[in-house]
Design brief:
It is built from 32 helices and six strands. The protein is mainly alpha-helical. Helix 12 packs parallel to helix 14, helix 16 runs parallel beside helix 19 and helix 22 runs parallel beside helix 24. It holds the Pfam family Dymeclin. Belongs to the dymeclin family.
Length: about 700
């Protein structure tokens, strides 16, 4: 570095960097700093170049760690940067390019150094490095934390006060990234960092009054999605394909922070367009998420989380009964538009989840929107392409749906929104379908993917909880959506019969059914149903009668008997009793969903009744099952009522005639004969007590335990 352009390969031998990290102290007034900071540098635009940059400067950084206690050169560099920033706002207004250039370059070097420092030394040691002065070895200022606090305060002031122009874009991006780097110590800790000097400086002292302004600025950076300025508008050379000067480094650090936020999960790789088009928006969002998820201090709550929790709409003129000192107002319409457009990234989905979960003002506004499809469709597309997403992104999208479905108004309105030609849904051509029916199709598809691939109990529980919340408000379900609800329930009913058969009759001739369950698609369900009926109908009722005596004890005895009869086989035996419990849970929830629909909106859903009657033979086999007897009463009554109506209507009825009979019967059916099983599942329905939480990421200290 210095007056000429530098390349990554030259960095380790750069004379100015070697002097900075060497054994000689450098005064803040020496001409050396003007020489050091007058460099241009080709932008790392991918992770490979970023890694090369770090490797190329690692020896320099380690040398500075070793020598800085005697030279104090890190403190000198920071003071030079602070002096350059004092007139930065005026420089931006006056288009003083050289001044901004040198301030940016100083911050570039500081950020690069601190990133290595955080990976090599403890937080306490890092703070000591800010205090060393060129004197006796190990000498440091008596006021040990002033310089570090000044740097933090300067970075926050820079972000909130410097206008966003082509000229200032890179230094603003660098300031945001520097704060992320300073907060990155959590990356090197296995436990949660509860007490941190860096956190304390941010939550108290001179930085505290800037809390709301910082959060508001970061949100507006995300909303504006300003692209990186073209090369011609920069004061330093830059590669043609865009990106900020340090965006490669910034992206690498931010990816690490995102790993913390997702509890170690691997985030979806951003596309090159996402990486390079709006780096400031992306980094601002990541910093906002990091700040709002810092743990509370022992004597005060996290002010950034408070700011995220209490900010209001600019159009909201009402006076809050309990105003929060860190609250502010922002344009909710612009925020909503940005959230709808940016849901392809993990961090944007996490922001949406955080706002819906924590900020009641945002949640109320979103639920009142008349264009809800703009938000819901991107979420459904995330779930639909589940195989291309990481588990955390999928889970967060699902929890967002679960939050939305807690609202009856939402559950009603989504069935009134008619969509045409959903191109990304490829299972079947959907020329016209309601948003509610599409949501049902996508959620059921997600459940099936989970049950066959990831087998995460809590994922399918939350999927079913979302459907259960919606079920009382089902309206005019698309025939395919109604078929999928019933066929999915039937699939588990058949699976239950198969596992029950393997448990009690391990040497029966039903082994080929396992292949059927894994290989047959929905189009082959009729063959599978016929096979199950012929093989299992003869003893299903007797098995259910046996189970009704002492359900769990009988299952345990049958499992032990199975292990005894097949004990000579060295291969591990499947735990059929456990499988039965899981399948029972799914069946129970599916029956509750069907019951809720029949009880509350039967007359609105003739397609649901039609699909139920079409599969009635399988449902009838479960009348006497001890786990389902109560909830089967409604279904059995509806099947009997409409079956009688169809018999009275005559034989060889067309589909249209059957639907007409169902609609007429729905009006005549006495509603008091149906028992209401409706219950509301909240977004906390994720984990049972005592279980380790895998995801979703829990913002702050908010609970995500299971509750109904």
């Amino acid at each position: 570095m210095g007056a000429n352009s530098s390349t990554i390969k030259e960095l380790s031998e750069n004379e100015f960097l070697k002097k900075l990290s060497g054994t000689d102290s450098i005064s803040e007034n020496e001409p050396f700093w003007n020489q050091l900071l007058s460099f241009s540098f080709s932008t790392p635009t991918n992770s490979a170049d970023s890694k090369l940059l770090e490797e190329g400067t690692l020896s320099i950084c380690k040398s500075l760690i070793e020598n800085n206690p005697r030279t104090g050169n890190l403190g000198a560099l920071i003071r030079v940067f602070l002096s350059r920033t004092k007139e930065l706002k005026i420089s931006a207004e006056c288009q003083n390019q050289l001044f901004i250039w040198q301030a940016h370059n100083a911050l570039f070097i500081i950020c690069r150094l601190i990133k290595v420092f955080t990976s090599q030394i403890s937080e306490e040691e890092l703070l000591l490095h800010f205090t060393y002065r060129p004197a006796d070895p190990g000498n440091y200022e008596s006021d040990t934390e002033n310089l570090f606090e000044e740097l933090l305060f300067c970075l926050i002031q820079l972000i909130v006060e410097i206008p966003l122009l082509d000229l200032t874009y890179s230094i603003l991006l660098e300031a945001v990234t520097a704060l992320i780097v300073l907060l990155s110590y959590q990356l090197f800790r296995k436990d949660i960092l509860h007490e941190s000097p860096i956190h304390r400086h941010l939550m108290k002292g001179p930085c505290l009054p800037y809390t709301s302004r910082l959060v508001k600025t970061l949100l507006y950076n995300f909303i504006r999605q300003e692209k990186s300025p073209p090369p011609g508008s920069h004061i330093f050379p830059q590669q043609q394909d865009g990106g900020g000067l340090l965006y490669g480094l910034a992206s690498g650090v931010a990816s690490g922070i995102w790993t913390v936020l997702t509890l170690g999960g691997v985030g979806s790789k951003p596309t090159p367009q996402q990486e390079q088009s709006s780096p400031l928006a992306n980094q601002s969002l990541l910093l906002l998420l990091v700040l709002s998820n810092l743990t509370d201090a022992p004597d005060c709550p996290n002010p950034f989380r408070q700011s995220v929790t209490f900010f209001r709409n600019t159009q909201d003129s009402s006076v809050s009964p309990t105003p929060n000192p860190h609250s502010f107002q922002i344009n909710f319409n612009s925020l909503y538009t940005a959230l709808c457009e940016q849901q392809k990234s993990d961090q944007a989905t996490l922001l949406l989840y955080t706002l819906l979960h924590q900020n009641s003002n945002v949640r109320t506004y979103v639920l009142a929107r008349s264009d809800m499809e703009n938000l819901v469709l991107p979420i459904l597309e995330i779930l639909y392409h589940v195989e291309d997403r990481n588990s955390h992104h999928v889970y967060m999208a699902l929890i967002i749906l679960l939050i939305l479905t807690e609202d009856d108004g939402f559950n009603r309105s989504i069935h009134e929104v008619i969509l045409k030609n959903i191109t990304w849904y490829t299972e079947r051509v959907l020329t016209e379908i309601s948003l509610g029916s599409l949501l049902i199709l996508v959620v059921i598809r997600t459940i099936q993917y989970n049950m066959t691939r990831t087998r995460d109990k809590y994922l399918h529980t939350n999927c079913l909880a979302a459907l259960a919340n919606m079920s009382a408000q089902f309206r005019s379900l698309h025939q395919y959506a109604a078929q999928r609800i019933i066929s999915y329930a039937c699939r588990h009913l058949r699976r239950y019969l198969y596992v029950l058969d393997k448990l009690y009759f391990p040497h029966s001739h039903c082994a080929t059914l396992q292949h059927c369950f894994s290989a047959l698609s929905d189009n082959g369900e009729e063959l599978l149903s016929l096979t199950c009926s012929h093989i299992l109908r003869s003893y299903a009722s007797s098995l259910f009668s046996l189970l009704s005596k002492k359900h769990n004890k009988v299952l345990e005895q049958a499992t032990q008997s199975l292990r005894g009869s097949l004990g000579s086989d060295e291969s591990p035996l499947p735990d059929y009793a456990q499988d039965l419990n899981v399948i029972e849970e799914v069946i129970r929830m599916m029956l509750e969903i069907i019951n809720s629909c029949l009880t509350n909106s039967l007359h609105h859903n003739p397609n649901m009744v039609y699909a139920l009657l079409y599969k009635r033979e399988l449902f009838e086999q479960f009348r006497s099952h001890p786990s389902f007897q109560d909830i089967m009463q409604n279904i059995d009554m509806v099947i009997s009522f409409f079956s009688l109506r169809l018999e009275q209507a005559g034989a060889d009825l067309s589909v249209e005639r059957v639907l007409e009979v169902i609609k007429q019967g729905a009006v005549a059916l006495p509603k008091d004969r149906l028992r209401d099983y409706t219950r509301i599942w909240s977004c906390h329905a994720a984990y049972p007590a005592g279980k380790r939480r895998k995801y979703p990421v829990n913002p702050g200290n908010l609970s995500d335990d299971c509750s109904i």
